[in-house]
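Help wanted!
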Amino acid sequence: MTLYGYRVPMMASLLVWCGIWELVGQSGLMFLVPPLSAVLVAGYAMVQTGTWQAAAMITLHSFAVGMALAVVVGISLGVLMGRFKAVDELFSIWVNIFVSAPLSALVPVLMILFGMGETTVIVTVFLFAVWIIVLDTRAGIQHVPKSLIEMGRSYGASTFALYGKIVLLAALPEILAGIRLGLVRGVKGVVIGQLLVAIIGYGELFELYSRSFDMENFWALTIILFAAAMLMSAAIEYIEKKVDYYAGVR
Amino acid sequence: MMASSQVNGPARAVHSPAGWGLSLGRLFTQHPIASRLVSLGLFFLIWEIAGRVPISYAFPTFLETLSAFVTMLFDGSLFAAYGSTLQPLIIGIAISGAVGVALGIVMGLSRTAEWLVAPLFIVLQSAPMAALIPLITFVYGIGLAAKTLAVIMLALPVVVLNGYKAVRNANPSLVAMCYSFQGTKLQQIAKIIIPDASPVIFAGLRLGLAAGFIGVILAELLITPTGIGDLITYHRSVANYAEMYAAVVSIILVSTLTLAALEAFEVRVLRPEKRRG
Amino acid sequence: MTSSTASIHALPRAESAAVEVRSICKNYKEVEALRSIDLDFPRGKLTTLLGPSGCGKTTLLKIIAGLVEPTSGEVRVNGKPVTGPGPERAFVFQDFALMPWATVMRNVAFGLELKGMGKAERQSIARHYIAEVGLTGFEDKYPHELSGGMRQRVGLARAFAVNAEVLLLDEPFSAVDEQNRRKFQEDLLRLVEKERKTFIFVTHSIEEAVYVSDRIVLLSRRPSRVSQIIEPKVDRTASPDAIRRDQGYLDTVEEIWQGLKHYVD
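Answered by r_m:
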């Protein structure tokens, strides 16, 4: 169960694991694990099919909408919680509960409320991703140096300018870290949501391939999914590093 | 302080202990009880009103859900379900803990093991492992083993990575102290590195448990209709929405209370130096 | 009151030296930290390594302790070359290096615990030294319950407990506040008198060096060399307050400051 790997910078040992995967697959010891090369061939063919492209589009769409909502709501709520004690006290218990609650149990409820369709998946992505963004944004806002805000006030910044030009930028490193973690959780959310709904997007394909024992395609699907998750995470991390150069001197 | 963790770099913390974990424990220390009660009360009030409107035919009121919860508590169905749900969870976490701590220590002490194993777990940590749960059935059927494996799949990466980072970042000053008093390598590991790493290792187990809850529920909903997952599916299929909601709320409640208790234990027992302030 | 004569002192004869440092060099990649250091540390005396910050005094101390390998050169303790830490040396750490999960008792007895000594025996030794550093009654406290000064007393007791001949103290008072530091310095002098061990002490405080030392080794800026050896002539039988007002003490402090001033920019 531990034999997958894809391109991650400076992680050459993953190639070793890919080699082991290939060997295990060639030996034919486990019918669940076809050779990596066969998986790659199947994957190459799969991405050219309309079925996969449609599934990928709908998955990406659910993910993007859910994440966008989570980022907007998460940052807004985080800022409010960071700035206003009353808001903080009202919401902190719920944010802290949901950030580590087994949200997979909530998906059946979402299914009856929002139907067996894309809306449920979007809401699942949102619920998986939003809480950590709230928490990190809140922490970032609370750590904005007081003197920086007083500086802005003393130079006559309007509230709008104060938030747009000082507070949000000063909290940016934490907010980005929250978004990256939210992204990782959102990917888990989209997978869990689609698996449970089971009739749309990637979930449908997973269901189809695992029921028909089509392991080449199943693993090809998994690799593409894992790679997409890693690439997105790496992209945000890249932006974080760009931001870190000024964050270090705060 | 970053309230979050960095996942993609061996040198960084997996989930900084001060992140979303610790804040859960602060619930019980920092915020006055009054504001928490108001917050809870307000939520339940909105729920009750939304249920009475009703916003959906499948949306019971808070009081209906509460009474369903009490009924299930007394007819024993909740207890039976939790017996079935918690067993694989505990076994899975125990196995993840043993394997994770051992692997973490080996990786923390050997650069070769680190190079070979760490990237794998960094990938697994941020990958949606849930996608592989349907595969479990082929090998382990739908019994206890399948659920346990689902827990391990989701919990192991975070447990391993925390163990590894804790050992790798063991206080160098204490290690030098042990060396200066001619401590052997074995004494250094047993008397300095493991005790020094234990709070972070424990935090890893706690995060693993949170992931394990997701895993066991997912397995029960997807592949093995037993336990609390079955309770949810069953009541949904016969349109007993109040009972279904009660089951969902109960699992969130159980996991929250368990994690908060573990965190309180961690702060009290394992980090005496952090207790003040 | 004795008058102070601070002078470059001839190296004492080798047999009276507990620790001999022979042409020690240490490079960190391109940075040359120590250049050909030759020093003898006389038995039963307190010798201080003093110099501008970043001059490598701690590095030299850690080389003597066997915690850091020199690039070239040799350290001999009682004539035997140092290859690593040994039972005849004990180290007191700048950041105390106390185990936060262990009580004062276990921390002080830790060196003995590592040697495999039985619990009753090591605790009775530890209890003695806990009393010596003035911490009786704190045996079952944890480090986080103690002040900085008390924590370093634990570190000192731990070093005493293993009964090493040579005690190496790396800026032991730098993380201790000013008032506690003064009290601690006075207690240290009493312990030096009582324990009859060889002390090697690193500090960046001139006053502290003159107050506690039999000999002061002035190190120059990187690459560090021995620039001067001073023996403060201070009457240590006088009361602590008298010493701090002693003309010899004040003159020596001033002389060292004049020597070091040009390193400060």
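OP: Thanks! One thing I noticed: Confidence is low (pLDDT under 50) at residues 1-22 of chain B.
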